[in-house]
Design a protein that fits this description.
Nucleotidyltransferase, domain 5, 5-stranded mixed sheet, Integrase_cat-core, alpha+beta, 2 domains, RNaseH_sf, nucleic acid binding
C-alpha cells in the first residue's frame, strides 16, 4: 500500500501483539511501522489503565477516543503549525504519487523549523487513525474471505526481453486476523480469478464459510442488493 498508515485494523493488531508480549521492535517489524509510532501508541494504551482485552472489545470510535492524544502542557509552536496544516497533509497523502518524504520536503520550504521525518510520520499516523474511524464489525475466525482486485495496475520487466508487462493484482484478506494474500495476474478474466482463488485457498490451507466480494464483475452476473446472480463456475 502507498502512504502506509496505522488504521484501525493495524491498531487492533498492535493490541493483540502487545497482549502476546511482543517487543516494541518486533511489533514495528511485524506491522511495518516505525518504532516511535509503536512506542507512542503503547504509552497511550498504558495510560488508559485498561487491559488489552477490554480495549479490543471497544468499537472503533470508542477505541480511537480512548487513545486520542492528551493536550500538551506546554504549547510547541511546531505542533501548533502541524495541526493547522493537518487536513492539507491528509488530503495530499490520498493523491497518487504523494509520499511522506515529498510532503515533508515541501513543508520544510514553508516552515524550516518543522519536525523531523520520524516525528512527522508519527503525528500523521495519529491523525490518520482518528480520520479512519469506521463502523465496527465483529468477525469470526476463518468465517469470511474478502476478495477484490487492486484499483491500479502494476507492471514488471520480463527478464528475457526487457519488455514492460502490465498486470492486475488480486488481493484477499481474512478480516479477523488481517492475514492477506496478494497475487499478480495477467488479466482480470474469470479463469485468472479462479486461478488466484485456488492459489489463495491453498496458501491459507483451508476454505472459509463465505467468500465476499464487492459486486466483482467476474463473479456477479446480475448485481442485486438482496439476491445477486453469480457465475456458475464460482457457485
Amino acid at each position: 500500500m502507498p502512504n502506509k498508515f496505522i488504521n484501525m485494523l493495524i491498531l487492533r493488531r498492535l493490541l493483540q501483539l502487545l497482549q502476546r508480549e511482543f517487543s516494541m521492535r518486533n511489533i514495528a517489524i511485524e506491522l511495518d511501522l516505525n518504532r516511535e509510532t509503536v512506542s507512542v501508541y503503547h504509552k497511550r494504551i498504558e495510560a488508559t489503565g485498561r487491559n488489552y482485552e477490554d480495549l479490543l472489545r471497544l468499537s472503533d470510535g470508542d477505541l480511537a477516543a480512548a487513545l486520542q492524544p492528551r493536550p500538551a502542557t506546554a504549547e510547541d509552536p511546531r505542533l501548533i503549525d502541524f495541526m493547522s496544516r493537518k487536513e492539507y497533509f491528509l488530503n495530499e497523502l490520498e493523491k497518487r504519487g504523494v509520499i511522506r518524504q515529498l510532503l515533508l520536503k515541501e513543508y520544510k520550504k514553508v516552515y524550516p523549523d518543522c519536525y523531523g521525518y520520524t516525528k512527522f510520520c508519527g503525528l500523521l499516523d495519529q491523525q490518520l487513525v482518528l480520520k479512519g474511524v469506521s463502523m465496527y464489525q465483529e468477525h469470526r475466525v476463518g468465517e469470511i474471505l474478502q476478495i477484490d482486485f487492486a484499483g491500479d495496475k502494476m507492471s514488471y520487466v520480463r527478464p528475457e526481453t526487457r519488455e514492460l508487462v502490465d498486470c492486475v493484482v488480486f488481493v484477499a484478506i481474512l478480516p479477523y486476523s488481517g492475514y492477506t494474500y496478494v497475487m499478480a495476474l495477467a488479466d482480470a478474466t474469470l479463469p485468472q480469478l479462479v486461478k488466484a482463488l485456488n492459489s489463495c485457498l491453498r496458501y491459507f490451507c483451508g476454505v472459509p464459510k463465505y467468500i465476499k466480494c464487492d459486486n466483482m464483475k467476474q463473479a456477479v452476473i446480475k448485481p442485486s442488493l438482496y439476491e445477486p446472480s453469480l457465475n456458475e463456475l464460482l457457485e
